[in-house]
Design a protein that fits this description.
The complex is a heterodimer.
Chain A (H helix, E strand, L loop, with lengths): L5 H24 L5 H20 L2 H16 L4 H24 L18 E4 L2 E5 L10 H4 L1 H23 L31 H10 L24 H15 L11
Antiparallel strand pairs in A: 1-2
Helix pairs in contact in A: 1-2, 6-8
Chain B lengths: L1 H27 L3 H10 L1 H4 L38 H10 L15 H12 L3 H5 L17 H13 L3 H4 L38 H10 L18 H11 L6 H26 L4 H27 L15 E5 L18 E4 L1 E2 L14 E8 L3 E9 L8 E3 L3 E3 L3 E7 L21 E7 L6 E6 L5 E3 L7 E7 L2 E9 L15 E9 L11 E2 L3 E5 L6 H28 L1
Helix pairs in contact in B: 2-5, 4-5, 7-12, 9-12, 10-11, 11-12
The chains are: A mainly alpha, B alpha+beta.
Chain lengths: 258, 565
């Protein structure tokens, strides 16, 4: 049996790597990978291959042998002609498809989490410092469980009268209005949401909504209403209790490092 | 190895018998677990007592089901029958598309869903009293989907008078649509059959067939409204033929009377069957009539299926983004066939629930858009379904107040310079202003230019530019054609340029659904582009590149050969 040449092995490795990135990583395992990232990986792989084959002189010569043969060997006439036609044709197709490509709409880069103001307010009333304000109904959890339960129930009422259209029956951000919105409504079942923020942060996001987001880190494009126009302070604190009660995730508390 | 398998089998059988035991108990006793899940996940809409009066109910239409009446819309069982447990389980699992009932497949375990089924059954005594299982609709004699069947179904659609509610083309725009109410006296809109993603009970042909046979309990959807009950399709066709004749021969008259008698006979037997007084012979006649009715229902189901795309179209983002096509000549008028060469871009709309008064129960699903441009102008064709044509504010004793239908197309005044340049607030602007085209049904061939810095801070521009508009309303659908110059002299207008992505958003008002002012349906920002004319470079560069690479190959060969010698 004829030995497979080093060049063929390298070529096959290169192709398999590309197929893996494009279709396996970017399809079966995860979401499609941007083409620029794939190009970067492929460049690294190419460099790795070249480094590998050029470490030793003999190996490098072995690697170049098929190329050399194809270019000049008398017995490789057919292969030479086929490649001489195929390579320019591929280049033609590639350049054409690149030039004919349609422009893509701009993406919407935005900060993952907006930074809150220093002071927490409800309408114009100052509640306190963002860092220190606590949910005034939270202490009932220990002091008066019955009363705590009634606050959670009130929060549930507020949620299903106002929030579930977008944030969903199951608090998973998949309400029946969600599909028309971009960015999508927050998913409170995501373990990265509630545990990462203090209750005061939630109070700020709920009471001021999309228009209350800071001028930096834009564009937000948030469709979140200014809920202080519709809800009382107590209702907002109660719905905050409900979110954590329903999902089972605790809010970040004070004193924890960032 | 074999012993291990036996152990597995015994374990599995043991587990199965345990499950069977628990299920057997659930049907007779109140399931504590079911109650717990119900109160945590369902009660806020359906109410603690199952009366459909939870805290969220008031803002929802269709209203959440009242479980105490035993009336279930979506069943696999015959008319007047209770649903099967599987029916209830399926609704909880899949949800009711187009309503606020979501599917619970991912959020409740199958076991929890079964527990809830047994719990909601306790709200209605009928479930406990009934000893025989509900009669299921037989799918026997299903007529496969075909063009011929769709054609027959189309004729039946007219004969059965489906159009009275669902409209000529199925957009739910029938003449009685505005007046329909459900069993509880709440507004009930007939389904828009061209939007199968909103069919409450699913959109496969079997689902549609079951709605005909079993009815949709509690809704205005009638059952057995077969004007030719007892006749086959051929016979009813013949009957209509004879009926329309000015003069009949003697034999024809006899045939006509026979068919007539057959029909009234069948209807009489229908009553007798309901009372259980039918003789064997009558039962046979009934069976034949029912078979014919089932055949008709299959054809009708196939026709309804043909009215809508299978899935909700993808929204106009990514590869579906709205691209205005360049043409070198005059832009097409509204009726031009050139429009048919373009794919629509689909913009889903939802209720505006940010500013009072709010719209929690939208009736306009979406707006579809196509566009062309040339060197000086751009033209858009906006299409959206609205069941009623309202051109003014009207007071009606039965329906209440209805308003004027309208639509507004929103752009920023200044196109953002890059992805990090902020767009105006999506709800008619804020710190940054938006530029709007507003059309109202009362002035069907006019579009006003508005500038807004907030939903309650909008006004018509003092200088109205030259915008041409035409519109029409037919069979439950609005079409609006708008043409404007790419560039204007007005600083408050949007200026358009080929190849630049421009944010676009919509507001629409269905006057019959109480939409007025801020109560409306909206979209968030999308974008569109005047698709650049493909440059001629694409015919020059590629051959050059090909030639160059060929030359390089030849050069490389020469180089290697020289080195060898």
């Amino acid at each position: 049996m004829k030995r497979v040449s080093l060049f063929t092995i390298c070529f096959v490795i290169f192709i398999i790597s590309w197929v893996f990135l494009e279709f396996v990583m970017g399809g079966v395992i995860s979401k499609p990978i941007p083409s620029s990232v794939i190009s970067m990986y492929m460049a690294l792989i190419l460099i790795a291959i070249l480094v590998h084959v050029s470490v030793e002189d003999t190996r490098f010569r072995e690697f170049l042998r098929p190329i050399h043969e194809t270019l000049v060997d008398e017995n490789r006439h057919v292969r030479r002609i086929v490649l001489a036609v195929l390579i320019p044709l591929l280049m033609l197709g590639y350049t054409y498809s690149n030039l004919a490509q349609k422009a893509n709409p701009p993406g919407d880069p935005r900060d993952a989490h907006p930074s809150p103001p220093l002071e927490l307010t409800y309408k114009d009333e100052v509640i306190g410092s963002m860092q220190t304000v606590e949910n005034p109904h939270r202490h009932y959890e220990k002091d008066d469980p019955e009363k705590f339960k009634s606050h959670v129930e009130n929060g549930r009422r507020v949620y299903y009268q106002n929030c579930f259209y977008c944030h969903g029956d199951h608090l998973d951000g998949q309400g029946h209005f969600a599909d028309a919105l971009n960015p999508l409504p927050a998913n409170f079942q995501d373990p990265g949401i509630i545990p990462n923020f203090q209750e005061s942060f939630f109070f700020w996001r709920i009471s001021k909504g999309g228009p209350g987001l800071p001028a930096s880190g834009t564009p937000w494009n948030s469709a979140m209403p200014i809920w202080e126009d519709h809800l009382t302070k107590e209702e907002i604190w109660d719905v905050i209790l409900f979110l954590s009660d329903y999902t089972g995730y605790p809010y970040r508390t004070f004193g924890e490092g960032h | 190895m074999r012993r291990k398998n036996i152990v597995h089998l015994v374990l599995i059988l043991g587990l199965l018998s345990v499950f069977n035991l628990t299920y057997a108990q659930d049907t007779s006793e109140v399931s504590e677990k079911g109650k717990e899940v119900y109160e945590e996940s369902c009660a806020h809409c359906h109410g603690i007592e199952g009366q459909g009066d939870g805290s969220a109910a008031e803002n929802l239409l269709p209203r959440p089901r009242d479980f105490t009446r035993g009336l279930y819309k979506i069943r696999s069982t015959e008319s007047g029958q209770l649903p099967t447990d599987q029916d209830l389980f399926d609704i909880i699992t899949i949800g009711m598309p187009g309503s606020s009932m979501p599917g619970w497949e991912t959020s409740l375990s199958a076991n929890d869903r079964w527990e809830v089924v047994s719990y909601i059954k306790t709200f209605y005594e009928g479930f406990i009293e009934s000893e025989t299982p509900p009669r299921q609709i037989s799918l026997e004699g299903k007529i496969p989907y075909s063009e011929e069947s769709v054609e027959i179904g189309k004729i039946l659609y007219t004969q059965f008078a489906c159009f009275e509610c669902h409209g000529n083309l199925g957009r739910g725009d029938g003449t009685s649509a505005p007046t329909l109410q459900d069993e509880w006296g709440f507004k009930s809109w007939p389904a828009n059959l061209t939007q199968s993603w909103n069919y409450r009970g699913g959109n496969n042909i079997d689902d549609i067939y079951k709605r005909f046979i079993g009815g949709i309990a509690g809704s205005a959807m009638p059952m057995f409204e077969d004007p030719a009950f007892g006749l086959t399709i051929e016979q009813s066709k013949r009957y209509n033929e004879l009926d329309s004749k000015v003069e009949m021969t003697e034999s024809e008259e006899e045939e006509y009377n026979q068919l007539d008698e057959k029909m009234s006979n069948a209807y009489e037997i229908l009553d007798l069957m309901a009372d259980g007084d039918a003789t064997e012979e009558q039962k046979q006649i009934y069976d034949t009539a029912m078979k014919a009715f089932n055949v008709k229902s299959w054809h009708l189901a196939n026709y309804v299926k043909s009215l809508s795309p299978e899935k909700r179209p993808e929204p106009a983002i990514g590869k579906n983004v709205l691209r205005s096509q360049y043409i070198a000549s005059e832009l097409p008028e509204m009726a031009d066939t050139a429009w048919e060469t373009l794919e629509s871009s689909y913009f889903p709309l939802v209720g505006q629930i940010i500013v009072e008064p709010r719209q929690f129960n939208p009736t306009i699903d979406s707006v579809n858009v196509k566009s062309f441009y040339n060197d000086t102008e751009v033209v858009f064709l906006f299409t959206w379904d609205d069941r009623t044509h309202n051109t003014e504010v009207e007071e009606d004793e039965d329906i209440g107040t209805t308003f004027e239908d309208a639509i507004a197309i929103q752009f920023p005044v200044k196109v953002p310079k890059g992805p990090t340049d902020e767009k105006p607030y999506f709800l008619w602007g804020g710190r940054k202003a938006v530029y709007l085209w507003q059309w109202k049904a009362s002035d069907a061939d006019k579009v006003m230019e508005l500038t807004a810095k907030g939903i309650n801070n909008a006004g018509a521009q003092e200088v109205q530019g030259d915008i041409q508009a035409k519109s029409e309303y037919t069979d439950g659908q609005y079409k609006l054609w708008v043409k404007r110059a790419l560039k204007t002299d007005d600083k408050k207008d949007l200026q358009l340029e080929s190849g630049v992505f421009v944010p676009i958003a919509f507001s629409a008002w269905d006057g019959a659904n109480g939409d007025v002012d801020t109560k409306r349906v909206i979209s968030s920002w999308y974008s569109f582009v005047l698709e650049p004319v493909p440059s001629s470079r694409r015919f020059i560069y590629p051959p050059l590149v090909a030639l160059l690479s060929f030359g390089l190959l030849v050069g490389l060969r020469q180089f290697v050969r020289q080195r060898n010698t």
